[in-house]
Design a protein that fits this description.
alpha+beta, 20 strands, 37% helix
Length: 578
């Protein structure tokens, strides 16, 4: 292969003109010819090169032209025996040795782990002055000289590519990221597989859009901004007004900033999890297992089932109603309200009847009224449900107002439901696409814990945080974001960032140190993440164990319109003989 896309170098087409690379390509090709699809390898090797010119032994590892800085790390230029390391945006990308090649394996490991630049010297021959200097050759954006490519598909064995034409930036022109990429991500045609577009987006980690907003798409920059105290979750801090997501009702604490956010979250967590209620989720274990068992029993004997309608949708509503202490006779109404609210979130005025939106508005009002009545009934009547506990708690931070309790319950019911439905459905879809992993889960039930973590990275239920606001001017990746600007965080893109995750487009339940962004980060880390994890672990374990030879009816399945809360709207599977 003359040129191929390399994820380590932002999927640029890299020319590998040395026989060592041909050998590595042959090894991957031979392995893939004799392996099942789920076991195939992508070609992700670090480029190697060596040559002898007039008695000088020159060896390199990585791509030296993919760099903005260079530094001599070993030896001396005067002695014609030295090693230079190359870096791009603070990480090591290459090393070149002159008559000093024995340490190149060390530099190769630095490149593979995206080690910080400049790197430490492994030997005593470190120069006295290790000051990096700018490189003089053209920038990495010019490497492809025309078209570049990104690998598509969910499986490393898939070998399709999509050509995307790059346009050279005119001198003096302000960069605004890849033109049209964000719009293509939001277009429904990309819903089944947005990940190649995320790879395009990552070429500009912080991209200013035409409307003045900023899109952040790389892992390091997303985690930095999520933990930045200058970032606001309050819509009032945007310079351009935006409607409140709460529809005029009291805001839940995810739309607040410190200290009010911290106070309300502490009060809720006293009754929802550690440190004050450490056994909440484990105490639900029997109820979760029984609910899953009952739903799966209803699927017995059906040749075709819809994982969404028949299982993933009703499961979390039932669990959260039980957690809140909603009377059993009221649960059917909650199911209907949640269904209407979820449908209205995806409302498209161009294609959907207005009745869809109206039903969602009415469901929000009815849900708000019902929760308010339940809270009022709980005053002076302590019980096990979360509504009762919050209504009667006089902790260190005082007692929540009734409107704040309703907002917290609404947050659990709507946000918690949507996250869990997508996580279970995306999980089942991924397992059916990787039958060997599905069989492993049958044989090794304990695999489900790391498997769910990998799902949160690989196919996260929440793909995008559509907005945050800058309290004041903030600097991210050398880009100054002005006060009041809208900031969009592409969580799913960050969790596929090859600078942070090895083989990011490979589904690997054995992945180590899986610090994904599936539940966000910082003070707004998902409130119900522990419950969603356990619900999904039990759901997938039992579905895999009890369904009879499940098979996808259509791949890809139809997806919900939303690119933010991404998941199939239906997932039809066959079981049995079919």
């Amino acid at each position: 292969m003359a040129r191929c896309p390399n994820p380590i170098y932002e999927y640029r087409l890299i020319s590998l003109e040395h026989w060592a690379n041909a050998v590595e390509q042959a090894e991957v090709a031979a392995h893939n010819m004799v392996s099942a699809q789920a076991d195939r390898w992508p070609h992700l090797s670090i480029p190697l090169f060596w040559s002898i010119q007039f008695g000088v032994n020159i060896k390199s590892v990585g791509v030296p032209t993919f760099a903005d800085e260079v530094v001599v790390t070993q030896g001396s230029l005067d002695d014609h025996r030295f090693v230079t390391a190359y870096g791009y945006r603070g990480r090591v990308t290459a090393a070149v040795s002159f008559n000093n090649g024995k340490w190149l394996d060390h530099y190769r490991r630095l490149i593979e782990t995206a080690a910080p630049f400049p790197p430490p010297c492994p030997t005593p021959d470190q120069p006295a002055d290790m000051k990096p200097v700018p490189v003089d050759f053209p920038g990495p954006a010019l490497l492809a000289q025309g078209a570049t490519v990104v690998v598509t598909g969910h499986d490393p064995g898939e070998r399709r590519v999509t050509a995307v034409h790059q346009h050279r930036q005119k001198e003096g022109q302000t960069t605004t990221g890849t033109p049209g990429t964000l719009q293509r991500i939001f277009d429904y045609s990309a819903r089944a597989d947005p990940y190649p577009l995320y790879a395009e987006l990552r070429k500009t980690p912080v991209a200013r859009q035409e409307d003045g907003s900023y899109v952040i798409s790389t892992y390091r920059e997303i985690t930095d901004i999520l933990n930045d105290p200058h970032l606001s979750s309050d819509v009032r801090n945007l310079s351009r007004p935006m409607p409140s997501a709460e529809g005029g009702a009291t805001s839940s604490f995810i739309h607040m900033d410190s200290p009010e956010h911290d106070r309300l979250r502490r009060m809720a967590m006293r009754h929802f999890g550690p440190p004050h209620t450490p056994g909440l989720v484990t105490g639900l274990e029997g109820f979760l297992t029984a609910t899953v068992g009952s739903l799966i029993d209803d699927l017995a004997g059906k040749e075709q089932i819809d994982v969404v309608d028949d299982f993933a949708f009703p499961f979390p509503v039932t669990v959260i109603c039980h957690l809140l202490g909603v009377p059993r006779e009221d649960e059917p109404r909650f199911h209907l309200w949640v269904n209407d609210i979820m449908n209205s979130i995806d409302y498209n005025p161009k294609t959907d009847p207005k009745e869809k939106l109206d039903k969602g508005v009415q469901a929000r009002k009815d849900l708000h009224q019902c929760l308010g009545e339940l809270v009022e009934q709980r005053h002076g009547r302590p019980g096990d449900g979360l509504l009762s506990r919050l209504a009667n708690d006089d902790g260190p931070d005082g007692r929540m107002a009734d409107a704040e309790i309703v907002a917290t319950a609404r947050l659990l019911l709507i946000a918690g439901h949507e996250t869990t439905v997508n996580l279970i459905t995306n999980g089942m879809l991924t397992l059916l696409r990787h039958p060997q992993v599905l069989q492993r889960l049958r044989d090794e039930p304990d695999l489900v814990v790391p498997l769910v973590e990998e799902l949160l990275r690989y196919e996260p239920p929440v793909q995008i945080i559509p907005w945050r606001a800058a309290y004041s001017d903030v600097t991210v990746a050398d880009t100054v974001i002005p006060q009041g600007s809208q900031i969009m965080l592409m969580l799913a893109s960050g969790s596929r960032d090859p600078k942070h995750f090895h083989h990011p487009d490979r589904f690997d339940p054995n992945r180590r140190d899986n610090q994904h962004l599936g539940f966000g980060s910082g003070i707004h880390l998902c409130f119900g993440g522990s419950l969603a994890r356990r619900e999904t672990q039990i759901a997938l374990t039992e579905l895999v164990r009890q369904l009879d030879r499940p098979r996808l009816v259509a791949d890809p399945p139809p997806y919900r319109p939303s690119p933010v809360l991404r998941g199939p709207i239906h997932l039809d599977i066959e079981q049995g003989d079919g």
